[in-house]
Amino acid sequence: MSPAPTLPESIDLAHHLAKRVRTVQPSAMKALGALVGSRKLLTLGGGTPHPSLFPMSHATFTLPKLSTLNGDVQDWQQGEAVTEEIHLKKTGQGTENDEELVHQLEELNELLHGKTISDSSIYITLGNTDGVSKVFQLLVEPDVDTVLTEEYSFASSLNAARAKGARLYPIKVDGEGLVPEDLEKVLSTWDERVQGRKPHVLYTIPCGQNPTGSTQPQERYDEIYRICQEHDVIIMEDDPYYREQLQLKEARSELPPAPEHAKDDDVQAVAKVFNEYAGVRSFLSRDVDGRVIRIDTFSKVFGPGVRLGWVTANSAFIERLLRIGETTTQVPNGLSQSVLASYLSDKHWGIGGFIRWMWGVRLEYQNKRDYFLDRLNEYVPTNLVSTVPCGAGMFQWLRVDLTSHPRYRKNPINSPADTAVNLALDTVGKEPEVPPGLELKSTNEPAQYTSNAGELMDELWNHLVEHGKVVLLPAKVFIVEKEGVDQSEDLNFFRATFAGDLENIDAALKAFGGSIKEWFARV
Ligand SMILES: Cc1ncc(COP(=O)(O)O)c(C=O)c1O
Predict the structure, then answer these.
(1) I want to staple 379 with a disulfide (CB 3.0 to 4.6 A). Which of 214, 305, 390, 513 is the partner?
(2) Ligand 1 center–CA 201 separation, angstroms
(3) Fold of 14-40+89-245+280-348
(4) Does pLDDT of 431 surpass 60?
(5) Any idea where the Aminotransferase class I/classII large domain is (predicted)?
(6) Fold classification of 364-521 (topology level)
(7) How far is the CA of 476 from the centre of ligand 1 (A)?
(8) pLDDT > 50? residue 148
(9) Spatial CA neighbour of 237 closest among 224, 223, 219
């Protein structure tokens, strides 16, 4: 066997850490606790009750059988299951991560993303909301930093960034996700005198983006990583939908057959097929610097209620996340950790079984997406609503063509304020005089318009709820505001999910189609 290649260590990226996080001291109590464990000392120090006072040790779970995980989750849906006893470790302490789970996640990471730096580490979170929020805390200097992100993004993450004191700046997206040329332009034309500190954090959902459903092609991943290297930007890769890439086509039976016992599974072979049928590889799999902070969750493949996820990053960042955790959540719920570690152990599913489960979940989403697109086609006229089939995840981004509505208006504006900005820019060689409240950003924008698209979308949304009895999420929930720019023209989208059952998809799209036709016909 050839020796494993020597991996580079991450480069020094400590300057990206927020000042308040650099100085957090490790918990002295935990350090003493560790000393007791390592030196086998008698102790009167710790303040935790004796485990015999905790009223649980085992639990019985009903879970899909390994042999039904070879491609379909349908057997499970039809009741094929086994009941197994799961040992709950002495999780009551609540201050330590489950070491077994950490190792399993390291193995899973390596199977799905490979390993590119020697000091890659893992931090267990309470799901991606928690992971994203803690990573913003790690990197954002309150009231100083601007975080770059897709122009439409997951509203909770945007709120988390704002709550940590970040301003947001939108980067353009198209049907293939974030547009690298726009990222490059924004970074290379950033004017610190006017716009504040140059952004050093990109928050992105590159795969099955929420809300647009877009998945970046490989070349975009490469290009964005290169730009972030060039401008020294940290990439926060929030990726709940990576494992739900919908490129399976006819590959329903490609995985090697599931063995009776997880320990006999050929995990490498299972992962190989799983990866081959993924359309894209993650930012993490290309990260030679340690500048990617990958944020994963069990929510979409195991259940949001387990509240478990993990962050993967260079060890210096992970060490600081541990410090943040010590003063916020401690570690995630020990019961959930214990249960997940049991599922992933060879006694139950093993890592191979978990990948098989994800494969089955993928197939289900692919069916749902195709069904959704067929029903959309059937019920909703394409001249009113168009969409690009998503390549991963569970969202379709529906573009409403408001231009064919009789009351749609879009007029160029030439307000005194705009003229002042343009004049200021034309003044070559002088310090530009920017009117208060207006930023130079708007100068890179195309001509400005007033448009009633926002009002029409509000009206349409109300009509859908009142008359169609159907709810879709409007773009205004997700849009990243751009100071000094009228974004009404970008509000003509709805996010629709195909995560529900087929009956619901059919009824909701029928209602949507009927109701939107009715609204367009009204004057
Ligand atoms: C992009 C994105 N990030 C984070 C989350 C939250 O995930 P979790 O349930 O793990 O907190 C979601 C869930 O919808 C999401 O779509």
Answers:
(1) 513
(2) 19
(3) Aspartate Aminotransferase; domain 2 (3.40.640)
(4) no
(5) 118-512
(6) Aspartate Aminotransferase, domain 1 (3.90.1150)
(7) 19
(8) yes
(9) 224
What number does the ligand 1 atom closest to the CA of 309 have? Answer: 10
pLDDT at position 66: 83
Kindly state if the Cβ of 157 falls inside 6 Å of ligand 1. yes
- As given in the structure block, the two tokens for residue 368 are 């749902």
> Do 520 and 405 touch, CB atoms closer than 8 A?
yes
Q: Given the CA of residue 304, which atom of ligand 1 is nearest to it?
A: 9
Q: What is the mean pLDDT of the chain?
A: 88
Q: Which residue in 359, 377, 371 sits closest to 498, CA to CA?
A: 371
For residue 95, pLDDT over 70 is answered with: no
Q: What is the 3-state secondary structure (H, E, C) of 380-417?
A: CCCCCEECCCCCECCEEEEEECHHHCCCCCEEECCCHH
- Both tokens assigned to 209: 């983006």
Question: Where are the domain boundaries for CATH 3.90.1150.10 in the chain?
Answer: 364-521
d(CA 437, CA 113): 45
The pLDDT of residue 378 is above 70? yes
Confidence check: pLDDT of 335 > 70: yes
Q: How confident is the model at residue 253 (pLDDT cuts 50, 70, 90)?
A: confident
Please state the rounded mean pLDDT for residues 293-314. Answer: 95
Domain with CATH 3.40.640.10 in the chain: 14-40+89-245+280-348
pLDDT value at 434 more than 90: no
